[in-house]
């Protein structure tokens, strides 16, 4: 028997999420080990005051939607006062809120509202670099001998930069101050790197963690957690800057992954341990997955995002390798895998997987795969609507990657375009329909609108909601153990938990696949799945969850 997607049966005036919801079931293991975390790109989620920029009030008003969807937590991209050079990742004040987004009391209100709905709030913290407008850097510019100067990497004036390090956004990693000194920035020049060998830096970040933890947040996503420390002698990198598909390798040995950084995570873990049920999830972009896993040893970060699926082509060996290697590497340190299929730095998966109907079918199948795997799952806002990568005209682009590469790299604006809420002018992003969104929303995005998808029983949105509900009912999904195998173009993840087994079977080939099964189909990612007593016929680019008898 195949499960049917349940229509919410709503009128536009009475949205389904306006109904009361039950609090989530108590879990025996810490919540974060199997949480579904929804990533909110704050600037693009919902605009509460009509200035075309997403904000905390807008997000608060949409919390019932997230609760209706069935996620456990939300992670919010940086909300701090910022120089605006890199989407908020250039922070001016770590213990404040950018007035564009609201103020500290809005964060408190958000946390309180979220808690009432059974949702946790995770913030982003950016310890590798500050904004060049941060008071420390401003002081260091004004006076090379002030204490703040030793909190960054400055080098005396000279013809050539101190070494061969390159910025990840293009160009050299060193720029000059007005008085001719060099300073280090592994990202944009507006993001000077902090010197973690100065103890004041560590002390200040611990203050920041406590500031937000005291306000009830459930933890932090840690930006560039593989950075912070640099080679003490600032020696040249041994190789050309050419990161491999999965992250930095030995060619960048002097800039990333210095052994000292692990002590920072041990201290941060100890701080979090003082606050029950909080967690740290790191961004660790290293080519060697065993090195990544070391960041999630039992006394360090609770987990590290696993980007393997995000960077894999639609192909059984690539997906099987991505899943198997992550399970093994994180399993060795006893950490859960944190699976990612989309975020604010990569092209939307519908587009990555081929675009159009094919890309969408694959993205739907990938969603079932993501939500079956043991560990936590990170869902990027808009992926539950099947949004494709948006075309953003060059003149509207904001991403420093586009500018620093002289337009050679498209940049990340296309995955950061505001959410379509209603099929009206302005797609319901701003309270005021005539407000100009900070990035242009393609006119055809009305068809992806939340209001429209809630009324279509076969929509991507309903698929996500249904999958989250089924996942919550079956311990085999998310909290179980898994093995991965392939047969031709068919990928199978066998998940066992709570004494039951659920198989997630994905047909990544071009022909219908016949899958032997005596089980019950719990959910299918798209139409055309036929079940008989002994088998399931799976169309191309489709996934099913089968509960074994
Ligand atoms: C990783 C973030 O995800 C990205 O958006 C940002 O540009 C860099 N870190 C620098 O902070
Ligand atoms: Ca706003």
From TrEMBL:
Its EC number is 3.2.1.-. Residues 39-416 form the Glycosyl hydrolase family 13 catalytic domain. It is an enzyme of class 3 (hydrolase). One of its GO terms (molecular function) is hydrolase activity, acting on glycosyl bonds. Keywords: Glycosidase, Hydrolase. This is Glycoside hydrolase family 13 protein. Coiled coil: none annotated. It comes from the Bacteria. Belongs to the glycosyl hydrolase 13 family.
């Amino acid at each position: 028997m195949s499960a049917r997607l349940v229509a919410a049966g709503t009128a536009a005036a009475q949205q389904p999420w306006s109904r009361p919801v039950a609090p989530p079931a108590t879990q025996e293991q810490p919540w974060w080990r199997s949480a579904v975390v929804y990533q909110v790109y704050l600037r693009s989620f919902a605009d509460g005051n009509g200035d075309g920029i997403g904000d905390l009030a807008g997000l608060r008003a949409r919390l019932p939607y997230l609760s209706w969807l069935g996620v456990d937590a939300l992670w919010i991209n940086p909300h701090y006062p910022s120089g605006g050079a890199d989407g908020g990742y250039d922070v001016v004040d770590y213990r404040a809120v950018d007035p564009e987004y609201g103020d500290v009391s809005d964060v408190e209100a958000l946390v309180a509202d979220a808690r009432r709905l059974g949702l946790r709030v995770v913030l982003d913290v950016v310890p590798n670099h500050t904004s060049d407008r941060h008071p420390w850097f401003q002081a260091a510019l004004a006076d090379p001998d002030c204490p703040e100067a030793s909190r960054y990497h400055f080098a005396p004036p000279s013809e050539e930069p101190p070494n061969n390090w390159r910025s990840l956004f293009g160009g050299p990693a060193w720029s000059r101050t007005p008085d001719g000194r060099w300073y280090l920035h592994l990202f944009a020049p507006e993001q000077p790197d902090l010197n973690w060998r100065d103890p004041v830096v560590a002390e200040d970040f611990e203050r920041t963690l406590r500031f937000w933890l005291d306000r009830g947040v459930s933890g932090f996503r840690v930006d560039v957690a593989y950075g912070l420390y640099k080679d003490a002698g600032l020696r040249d990198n041994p190789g050309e800057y050419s990161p491999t598909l999965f992250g930095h390798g030995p060619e960048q040995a002097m800039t990333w992954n210095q052994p000292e950084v692990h002590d920072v995570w041990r201290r941060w873990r100890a701080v979090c341990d003082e606050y029950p049920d909080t967690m740290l999830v790191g961004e660790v972009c290293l080519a060697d997955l065993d090195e990544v896993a070391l960041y999630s040893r039992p006394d360090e970060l609770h987990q590290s995002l696993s980007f393997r699926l995000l960077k894999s082509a639609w192909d059984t060996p690539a997906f099987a390798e991505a899943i198997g290697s992550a399970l093994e590497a994180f399993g060795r340190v006893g950490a859960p895998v944190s699976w990612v299929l989309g975020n604010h730095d990569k092209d939307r998966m519908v587009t990555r997987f081929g675009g159009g109907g094919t890309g969408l079918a694959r993205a739907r199948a990938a969603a079932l795969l993501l939500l079956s795997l043991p560990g936590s799952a990170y869902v990027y806002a808009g992926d539950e609507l099947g949004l494709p990568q948006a075309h953003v005209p060059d003149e509207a682009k904001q991403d420093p990657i586009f500018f620093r590469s002289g337009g050679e790299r498209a940049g990340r604006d296309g995955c950061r375009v505001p959410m379509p809420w209603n099929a009206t002018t302005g797609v319901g992003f701003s309270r005021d329909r005539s407000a100009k969104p900070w990035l242009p929303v393609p006119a055809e995005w009305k068809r992806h609108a939340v209001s429209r998808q809630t009324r279509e029983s076969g929509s991507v949105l309903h698929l996500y909601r249904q999958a989250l509900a089924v996942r919550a009912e079956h311990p085999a999904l998310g909290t179980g153990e898994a093995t991965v195998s392939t047969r031709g173009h068919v990928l199978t993840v066998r998940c066992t938990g709570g004494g039951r087994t659920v198989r997630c079977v994905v047909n990544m080939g071009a022909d219908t696949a016949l899958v032997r099964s005596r089980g019950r189909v719990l959910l299918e990612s798209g139409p055309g799945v036929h079940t008989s007593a002994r088998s399931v016929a799976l169309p191309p680019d489709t996934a099913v969850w089968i509960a074994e008898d």
